[in-house]
Amino acid sequence: MHKIGTIRARLFLLAIALPACFALAQAAQPGEAAPGFQLPQIDGSARLDLQEFRGRVTYVDFWASWCGPCRQSMPLYESLQAEFSREDFAIVAINVDEFQADAEQFLAAHPVSYTVLMDPSGDTASRWQIKVMPSSFLLDDKGKIIKAYAGFEPEHIETIRHDIQTLIN
Questions:
Q1: 93 band by pLDDT with thresholds 50, 70 and 90
Q2: pTM over the 0.85 mark
């Protein structure tokens, strides 16, 4: 990782860790309603609200261009999106890079067809109390967090697939 990326990574972690220490809002925890958000799509086409995904099992993934495990997870998430009907299942990837160009460059090398939103201020990541990159959450069709996943290893994908299938059924 180059020096600028390292500095950005440290600043990001500090930016999400400090507010989390003082946050009065509830953290994103299994069994609780997912904290809402309204964020712009990376292509600038629209702002999306988490509520728009109600009625579908939704996998919310926080990621960054400097995140090594994200390079492994995103292509596997792409295959998950292809396996399940978009009427039943959605993936929402929330990028936390300060500069959109960094996210765009990453996606040029690792393209995905699912929804990608931008959170350059880190406000949404802070409300969800993200401490590890990537961090992901599986939501039921009513927006309740069923499971949280911190970090990513390729072997995790089978567990995630099983969890999604269980909720859809």
A1: very high
A2: no
